[in-house]
Each structure stands twice: as structure tokens, then as C-alpha cells.
């Protein structure tokens, strides 16, 4: 499809928006696409396929820029023009070269501007949680607490509902705990889960408190990482004041909302209560008030979140996603990790237990990264941790630590760079998503500190295999970032036709495709609930993060993969 067709189609979308009475959004799309017509039409004409090769391209561009600057300098021109005919020919050739370079640079600027404009259109619509806001909720007494949902090494999680809500079903005892016992009763299980989630839309996480003291301030300080995904109203206003002005200026920053990152609605401290199963399941962490032999402190931190039906691990124990669904799941993890990276946060404990799941209206799994207890969230957002002593924590689960973290040696001036560590862990978790054992789990085969890339097991879907292999590269400088890996998947899932052609029209097709995607996603966004489907969220996320350099790197990696396999295997 030509640019004109693409724009024409976009304009039609714009017009139909207007006809539908959606004046504002229709006007914006139509104006946007009209404005893009010249820009994209011009940039795709001269784009060369070689320009996709990221590092080499960047090298050429920098060298050519330097050369252009030299040629433009008066002294250089004098030296060349003043001499022999040979010098004059050389000068002419350089002059033509400069013209070409300038044209390339101009195209570059225009393409980057197009990406930025598409990005700006989609960034304007911020992601908002579907959860209804509820008043207060800063005290334990504000909640009805149901059954235990899960337990980890640092906390226990219970289903909960705001105190004001009335239970919608008599069978309020059913929960995931019971679900597991009822395994095999397919239909009944699903209805049990629905009733539990309807009655208890929230989950309360109670952290174990051994060494954090019993004052709210001390607790907030020592468990501060759990607050990284907390919303702006999560902590009571007066505590928030303490957090920002007092000694708690050291608290890490918080990340903004994202469809693939947990949102903590409320965080407060309270006395540890005797909840169902406490005496049997976690007697040692109870305070002496509840168990004379218990070692826990009297007060602790509580986090209120949405109650999700299951974790990724629980889901994968019961089912193996198909090829496309698996790709969408992997993509969501990459989008979540990219969002965290951009906000200067490394999760450092990604594993299938720390990913929660629900389903959209089409039945597509939505994945949400949770449990930020081990995260690195420095105010300077560098994602670099000074590693001057063996006492510095490198993060959670050692099996899924990226090679550069696992092999780091403490010492004066040593630093661990976490900027691609979570992306590596996503690569390892992908094996579970596609129905295989995670090769890095203890006893399965590989160790992150010393594996060789050629020993990585193969995965049946060839299309994502390339992405996973790249994510699991030992050398982080050769590993794509979560953003670039996500762009690769976006391009291979939705951009098949735009990418199928590897000649000089490739860039032109990509530009057409970006415009169609933008118009299509805006249109879907107006269509009620389907506008919140996982696929639309993912496409919106891609467009709101559009960056020419990242896109070129993604294309470069894909072309590199195609060099070894026929192009069609990359389309899902
Ligand atoms: N919002 C939620 N909705 C439903 N279940 C949840 C939720 N949060 C946690 N869970 C369940 O509780 C379990 C323990 O939670 P979490 O992983 O946060 O605890 P933890 O002690 O910090 O874990 P870890 O052992 O990894 O440190 C999870 O594996 C999951 O089964």
C-alpha cells in the first residue's frame, strides 16, 4: 500500500470519527495524518535499508556528520578548491556527498519528529486503573478480610473487600486456596473463582516484620521498596508528609500506573491481627501477643491491591498458551519491564510467582508484575548499584539473576548495571510461557553465571525464539533492551506485511503501517470495552513509546535474524 493510500485510509478514519460525532478525537487524527503526509512521504522516499542496521548506521551517521562539518569549514574548502583539477573533482564529489548526507540527516529529523508526534498523541491518554476509587481505607478495620490467597517468604496475602461493600454471594468462603483443592472440576472452579473475586475485589498483603521496629516511621522506612508501585493517594496524607519531609526523604520514588505493573491502592501500618490460618501456617512470625514463641514485631505494613485470579506460575501449571497468546504474554512482561526501566526501577526478582494474571473481555491473559520487595529504585534513576561489599544485596531469586549480576565481584569502585537484568529474566521466564521447563531453575540444567548461549534449549515458535535468544545473551551490551525486544515482537506480531519486503520499500511500508496502526488504535479506543483489551493496550503502549532509534535497532535485529532464516517464520 502506498503512503497516499495509507494516509487516505487514515483520513477516512478521521472523517468517520467526525461523522460519528466524535469531533475532538476525529479532528485530531485527521489533522495529525494530514500533517504527517508530507513528512512521511518525504522521509520514506530516500530511506535506505542499510539504515536499519543500528550500530553500523549510527557509526556512519556520526562519521558523515563530522565529515560534513569539516567540508563546510572554510579552511577545508580553501584547501580543496584552490589546487589541481584532481582536487576540484574531489571537491565536487565531496559536495555531492554532503548533499546526500544533508538529505539523509533531514530525513532522519523528519522521521524522528513523526515518531515523537505519534508518541505524543498516545501519551496524552494515560493509563488508568479500572478499579473504582474507594474512600478512606487507611485502617485495617476498613476492610472485611476473607481467606488466604498466597504466602511467600516475606508476606502473606488475603482476599479483602471494603467494609462498606455487601457480599454479593453467600458462598464467601471460596478462594484460590479452595480452588486448588477442587482441581479437576473445571466449570465449577471457574464460578467459584468468579464469586470469590466478586465478593473480594481486593487483596491485602501483610508483611512479616522481624527487625523493622514497631513505629510506623521505622516500618515505612525499612519496607519502603514495597511502596514503589503505590498510587499517589496510597499513603495517608499526614504520613506522606513525613515520608517527604522527614528522615524519610530516603524513600525510593514511585512508578506511574501501567497496565502490566501492580498498583498498590493503599499502604498503612497496623497491629498484626490473628487472621485465618495464622497459628498453623506462620506461627513464628506472629508477635508474642498472639504467640508467646513468635518472633515478629507487634506492628507491620499492609498493602492493598486488586485481587487477581492467579499467578503466572499457577496459570501455566494448568494450561499451555498457544503461539500467539504466548507472544502477547511475553510482550506484556517486556512492556512492564520497559516501563520500570524508564522510571529508574529494576525489579530484581522477576519469576512466574511474581507475575499476577487476569483475563480481558476476549479471554486474553493480562500479566501484571508484582512484589517490589527486592527492587532497586534509586532517585538518580541510573540503575547502577555501587557494589563495594558482599553485604550489598544483589536482588532476589539467584537462579534468575542475569549473568552480569550473578558474576559481579564486590570491590572498591565496582558497580552492577541493572539496566538489562530484568529483560534477561523475562527471556528465562519465556520458556515457562511456551510450555518448557525454565532452563535456569535449580536442577534443570543451566546456571546463569556460567552457561554458554549455544546450550540454550530451542523453543518451537521460531518467531519468538530470536527475541528470547537475544534477551538471554550473556553480554548485556549485545542484549537488546526490554524496549527494543518489545518493538521486535510488536513488529513481528502486527507488522508482518510491512516487514515482509526487505528491499528499499521496507521503510516506506513501515511508515504506512505506523500510520494505519495509529488510526486503528485511536478508533478502537472509542469502542467501549474492547478499547481496553490487552491487544489494544499493547498497541497503545508501543505507539506511546515510539522512538526511531529503538525501532531501527529492532528492525536491525529482525533483519539479522532473517539473514539466518526465511522472513515468513517471523510473522505470528
Ligand atoms: N494482588 C494479588 N492478588 C492475588 N494474589 C496475590 C496478590 N498478591 C500476592 N498474591 C499471592 O500471594 C503470594 C505471595 O505474595 P508475594 O509474592 O507478594 O509475597 P512475598 O513474600 O513478597 O514473596 P517472595 O517469597 O517472592 O518474597 C503470590 O505468589 C500470590 O500467589
UniProtKB/TrEMBL annotation:
<keyword id="KW-0479">Metal-binding</keyword>
<keyword id="KW-1000">Mitochondrion outer membrane</keyword>
<keyword id="KW-0067">ATP-binding</keyword>
<keyword id="KW-0963">Cytoplasm</keyword>
<dbReference type="GO" id="GO:0005741">
    <property type="term" value="C:mitochondrial outer membrane"/>
</dbReference>
<dbReference type="GO" id="GO:0090141">
    <property type="term" value="P:positive regulation of mitochondrial fission"/>
</dbReference>
<keyword id="KW-0809">Transit peptide</keyword>
<keyword id="KW-0472">Membrane</keyword>
<feature type="domain" description="Protein kinase">
    <location>
        <begin position="143"/>
        <end position="493"/>
    </location>
</feature>
<keyword id="KW-0547">Nucleotide-binding</keyword>
<dbReference type="GO" id="GO:0006950">
    <property type="term" value="P:response to stress"/>
</dbReference>
<dbReference type="GO" id="GO:0046872">
    <property type="term" value="F:metal ion binding"/>
</dbReference>
<keyword id="KW-0808">Transferase</keyword>
<dbReference type="GO" id="GO:0000422">
    <property type="term" value="P:autophagy of mitochondrion"/>
</dbReference>
<dbReference type="GO" id="GO:0005829">
    <property type="term" value="C:cytosol"/>
</dbReference>
<keyword id="KW-0072">Autophagy</keyword>
<dbReference type="GO" id="GO:0005743">
    <property type="term" value="C:mitochondrial inner membrane"/>
</dbReference>
<keyword id="KW-1133">Transmembrane helix</keyword>
<keyword id="KW-0460">Magnesium</keyword>
<comment type="subunit">
    <text>Upon mitochondrial depolarization, it forms a supercomplex with TOM and TIM23 complexes. PINK1-TOM-TIM23 supercomplex formation requires PINK1 interaction with TOMM20 and TOMM70 and is critical for PINK1 stabilization at the outer mitochondrial membrane, kinase activation and downstream mitophagy. Upon mitochondrial depolarization, interacts with TIMM23; the interaction is required for PINK1 accumulation at the outer mitochondrial membrane, kinase activation by autophosphorylation and PRKN recruitement to mitochondria. Interacts with PRKN. Interacts with FBXO7.</text>
</comment>
<dbReference type="InterPro" id="IPR051511">
    <property type="entry name" value="MitoQC_Scaffold_Kinases"/>
</dbReference>
<keyword id="KW-0418">Kinase</keyword>
<keyword id="KW-0999">Mitochondrion inner membrane</keyword>
<dbReference type="GO" id="GO:0005783">
    <property type="term" value="C:endoplasmic reticulum"/>
</dbReference>
<keyword id="KW-0723">Serine/threonine-protein kinase</keyword>
<keyword id="KW-0597">Phosphoprotein</keyword>
<dbReference type="InterPro" id="IPR000719">
    <property type="entry name" value="Prot_kinase_dom"/>
</dbReference>
<dbReference type="GO" id="GO:0043066">
    <property type="term" value="P:negative regulation of apoptotic process"/>
</dbReference>
<dbReference type="Pfam" id="PF00069">
    <property type="entry name" value="Pkinase"/>
</dbReference>
<keyword id="KW-0496">Mitochondrion</keyword>
<dbReference type="GO" id="GO:0005524">
    <property type="term" value="F:ATP binding"/>
</dbReference>
<dbReference type="InterPro" id="IPR011009">
    <property type="entry name" value="Kinase-like_dom_sf"/>
</dbReference>
<dbReference type="GO" id="GO:0004674">
    <property type="term" value="F:protein serine/threonine kinase activity"/>
</dbReference>
<comment type="similarity">
    <text>Belongs to the protein kinase superfamily.</text>
</comment>
<dbReference type="InterPro" id="IPR008271">
    <property type="entry name" value="Ser/Thr_kinase_AS"/>
</dbReference>
<keyword id="KW-0812">Transmembrane</keyword>
<protein>
    <recommendedName>
        <fullName>Serine/threonine-protein kinase PINK1, mitochondrial</fullName>
        <ecNumber>2.7.11.1</ecNumber>
    </recommendedName>
</protein>
